[in-house]
Amino acid sequence: MFLQSLKLSNFKNYLAEEAVFCEHVNCFVGLNGSGKTNLLDAIYYLSLTKSAFNTIDSQNIRHAESFFLIKGEFKINNKSSIIQCSLKAQEKKTFKVDGQEYDKLSQHMGKYPVVMIAPNDDELIRESNEVRRRFFDSIISQYDPEYLQVLIKYNHHLKQRNAALKQFKETRQFNATLLDNYDAVLTQAGKVIAEKRKAFLLQYQPYFQNNYDELADQKENVTIDYSSKALEVNFKELFMESRDKDRIMLRTLVGTHRDEFILKINGKPLKKFGSQGQQKSTLISLKLAQFEFIKAHLNLTPILLLDDIFDKLDDERIQKLLDIISSDRFGQIFITDAREERTRDLLIKKFEALKIFKIDAGQMTELT
User: Fold this and answer.
1) Sequence ranges of the binding site
2) Could you please report the per-residue DSSP string of 123-171?
3) Are 240 and 356 within one domain?
4) How far apart are CA 105 and CA 93, in angstroms?
5) Which residues are listed for ATP binding in this entry (predicted)?
């Protein structure tokens, strides 16, 4: 699978731009703030129906404009398809494949996969379990439609339950039957989610370890410890026991939205005991494992998006990463870099099919 062309209208800092790409490596070079990352985000949009950086779609409309449009032509097994995402201010986002609009955006998941490695990935280590849950949920949802639907159902009822808890306080009226109904859905869906997360990690772990071994000098054991109340036999009872606390805190304190994914190195929490180098190797390994896992389960080679990685990694890790992605395991790759000379020095000898685009204030110029 590869992206043949991209057309943007009023997307972020782009007024009207289009480009044709090569099947292997495409590089966007230019000063910081010129719009390089916005191009990667446009490609991400076409794959996952949303931005990688801003959850509010309307904020991705160019300033003073009333809409944005992203259009890409993808090729899979010699068949081309036109993917189009558009949004008008105050209206619903639309997503079309060859002119046909989806009934639900979730129908698009996994059809045109991408994997992005970006500077903010370190939040997978620094931030709370919520960030790691979103990361792993995104992977599972791309190859397991049932999981995605159950997750959507769970989150919908969780939102309603939390709203009910707040309403109970405002009206000073409590409805136990209503909570019973929400709890029945959340416990049933929660068990499905937890079991699928557990099964996923058993398959994902070897990819994670193998990529870490390729990147790291030392042979360390990296693992993901997963814990969920939904895997306990008394999961339903835990909801009932937590009701009084839920009413005080005005939110649901038990469920798979509280599951924990703890990254460990040699049995110890990576966040506390991992060196800076070990943490960087772990982050890249998580993303490369995501790439290989999706490729194996969808029988499609995802597009790899690398955002400013040359500024965030030491020379040794850059070379090791380039050695990995130059193998035939990978297909089309998009890279951003602020320094054109560095990009040429690093990539020209490794990749035969290579295009470089100069980005300047939302305008693209092909250099090679």
Assistant:
1) 30-37
2) HHHHS-HHHHHHHHHHHHHHH-HHHHHHHHHHHHHHHHHHHHHHHHHHH
3) no
4) 9
5) 30-37
R_g of the chain, CA atoms, integer Å: 22
- Residue positions forming the annotated binding site for ATP: 30-37
What confidence category does residue 316 fall into, taking pLDDT thresholds of 50, 70 and 90? Answer: confident
- Quote the domain boundaries for residue 55: 1-113+306-367
Of 250, 268, 299, the residue that ends a domain is: 299
Q: Based on the domain organization, do 295 and 313 belong to the same domain? A: no
What is the pLDDT confidence band of residue 45, given thresholds at 50, 70 and 90? very high
Asked whether residue 217 carries a pLDDT value surpassing 80, the answer given is no
What percentage of the chain has pLDDT greater than the value 90? 87
Helix or strand holding residue 296 (H, E): helix 276-298
51-71 per-position pLDDT tens digit? 999 999 999 999 999 999 999
Helices 176-215 and 276-298, interaxial angle, to 10°?
A: 110
DSSP annotation of 230 reads G
